[in-house]
C-alpha cells in the first residue's frame, strides 16, 4: 500500500535486462554510444519530429532547468503555475541555471494555468520596459502537480497566448506518459503541434532507474543545450547505461503500457474513495496522482496497517484528512483494494 510517490517503484524487468545487455564490451562515451543513435531515431519517430535534438539527463530537475536556461536569458522571466515543480520543488535551481532569469507564477484551478490569468500576467509585463523582467517563456506541467491533464487544445490555447507575446514554450513532462495515455492524443499533438518548443520527457517516475530525455523540437538551440548540459555536470561518460534504459522504455511501447497501468490503479483508487462515506476527491483524477479527503478513522486504520502516502491535512489539523496518493506501474489491484478496505473499516 505504497502511494507516496511513483518514483518509489521498482524498475521493470525489461529495463534491468536492457542494462545487462548494455553491460558488455566497449561503447563510445559521452552520448556517442550506438544505443543512443537508436534512441534519438526512435524518439524522433515517436514525436514525428525528424529534426528534433534529443538528449538524456539523469533527473527531472536537470531536464527542466537546462531546458529553461536555453529559453530564458538572465534578464528574462518564465511564467509557470503557482504549484509548478520548478517553482515549488527545485530549490531555486531554475533561477541558478538561468543565471538571474526568474520564475513568475500564474494561478489556475486544478494545477492548470487559467488562460485569463495568463493574459493578465502577459499584459503586466508587456510592453517590456528596460526596468522589468523580459517575458521569455511559458512552462506547462503535464500531468499537472494536481494530477489533472492539459488536453492538446488547452496546451495550444496557452501556448498560442505565449507565442503571440513572443515567448517560447516548455513542457515539464515528468509524467508525460500518464498525461498522454489519459488524453488519447499522439505525442506530436500534445507537444509541438500544440506549440511546445522543448519537452522534458520523463522516464524515472514511470519506471526507469533515473533517465529523462530533453527534446528540442527546433534544433537551433542544440549546441547551446550541449554546452549547458556539460557545464551543468549532466554529460555522462558511461552514457550507454542511460541510453539502454531509454531504449527499453520505448521498445514495444513499454512506456505507454507502464503509464496505463499506473493510471488504471489511480482510477480504481479514486472510484473506491469517492464511494466511501465522507470520501471526496479534491481534483478530477485524470492520471496517476490523486488528492482526496476521507475520515480520520480511515486514515488511522490504513496507516496503522502500513499504508504510506502524504497526509496534507496534518498541516491544517482538521478531522477530514487530505491525502496525496500516487500510483505507479507496479501498483497492484490487491494493494488498492486492501487500502480501500482499511479506509472502509
Ligand atoms: C512535475 C515534476 N517535474 C519534475 C520533477 C523533478 O524530478 P527529479 O526529482 O528527478 O528532479 C518532479 C519530481 O517530483 C515532478 O513531479
TrEMBL record:
A single GO BP: L-threonine catabolic process
Residue ranges annotated for the Aromatic amino acid beta-eliminating lyase/threonine aldolase domain, each copy included: 3-291
Coiled coil: none
Keywords per UniProt: Lyase, Pyridoxal phosphate
EC number(s) reported in the record: 4.1.2.48
Gene3D superfamilies: Aspartate Aminotransferase, domain 1, Type I PLP-dependent aspartate aminotransferase-like (Major domain)
Chemical reaction(s) catalysed: L-allo-threonine = acetaldehyde + glycine; L-threonine = acetaldehyde + glycine
Cofactor(s) for this UniProt protein: pyridoxal 5'-phosphate
Annotated GO MF terms: threonine aldolase activity
Top-level enzyme category: lyase
One Pfam entry name: Beta_elim_lyase
UniProt xrefs under InterPro entries: ArAA_b-elim_lyase/Thr_aldolase (IPR001597), Low_specificity_L-TA_bact (IPR026273), PyrdxlP-dep_Trfase (IPR015424), PyrdxlP-dep_Trfase_major (IPR015421), PyrdxlP-dep_Trfase_small (IPR015422)
Assembly, per entry: Homotetramer.
Known role: Catalyzes the cleavage of L-allo-threonine and L-threonine to glycine and acetaldehyde.
Family named by the database record: Belongs to the threonine aldolase family.
Annotated protein name in UniProt: L-threonine aldolase
Amino acid at each position: 500500500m505504497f502511494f507516496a510517490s511513483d518514483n518509489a517503484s521498482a524498475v521493470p524487468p525489461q529495463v534491468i535486462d536492457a542494462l545487462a545487455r548494455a553491460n558488455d564490451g566497449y561503447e563510445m562515451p559521452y552520448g556517442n554510444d550506438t544505443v543512443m543513435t537508436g534512441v534519438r531515431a526512435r524518439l524522433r519517430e515517436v514525436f514525428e519530429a525528424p529534426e528534433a535534438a534529443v538528449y538524456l539527463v539523469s533527473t527531472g530537475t536537470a531536464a527542466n532547468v537546462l531546458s529553461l536556461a536555453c529559453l530564458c536569458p538572465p534578464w528574462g522571466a518564465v511564467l509557470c503555475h503557482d504549484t509548478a515543480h520548478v517553482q515549488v520543488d527545485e530549490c531555486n535551481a531554475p533561477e541558478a541555471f538561468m543565471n538571474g532569469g526568474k520564475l513568475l507564477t500564474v494561478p489556475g484551478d486544478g494545477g492548470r494555468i487559467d488562460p485569463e490569468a495568463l493574459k493578465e500576467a502577459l499584459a503586466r509585463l508587456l510592453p517590456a520596459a528596460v526596468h522589468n523582467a523580459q517575458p521569455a517563456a511559458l512552462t506547462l506541467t503535464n500531468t499537472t502537480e494536481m494530477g489533472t491533464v492539459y488536453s492538446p487544445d488547452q496546451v495550444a490555447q496557452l501556448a498560442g497566448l505565449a507565442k503571440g507575446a513572443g515567448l517560447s514554450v516548455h513542457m515539464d513532462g515528468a509524467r508525460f506518459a500518464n498525461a498522454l495515455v489519459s488524453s488519447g492524443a499522439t505525442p506530436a499533438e500534445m507537444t509541438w503541434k500544440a506549440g511546445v518548443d522543448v519537452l522534458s520527457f520523463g522516464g524515472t517516475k514511470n519506471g526507469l532507474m533515473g533517465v529523462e530525455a530533453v527534446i528540442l523540437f527546433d534544433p537551433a538551440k542544440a549546441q547551446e543545450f550541449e554546452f549547458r548540459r556539460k557545464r551543468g555536470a549532466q554529460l555522462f561518460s558511461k552514457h550507454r547505461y542511460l541510453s539502454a534504459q531509454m531504449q527499453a522504455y520505448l521498445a514495444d511501447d513499454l512506456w505507454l503500457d507502464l503509464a496505463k497501468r499506473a493510471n488504471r490503479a489511480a482510477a480504481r483508487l479514486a472510484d473506491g474513495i469517492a464511494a466511501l462515506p465522507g470520501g471526496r476527491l479534491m481534483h478530477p483524477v485524470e492520471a496517476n496522482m490523486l488528492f482526496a479527503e476521507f475520515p480520520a478513522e480511515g486514515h488511522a486504520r490504513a496507516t496503522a496497517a502500513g499504508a504510506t502516502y502524504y497526509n496534507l491535512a496534518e498541516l491544517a489539523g482538521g478531522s477530514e484528512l487530505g491525502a496525496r496518493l500516487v500510483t505507479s506501474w507496479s501498483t497492484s489491484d490487491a494493494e488498492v483494494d486492501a487500502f480501500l478496505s482499511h479506509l472502509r473499516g
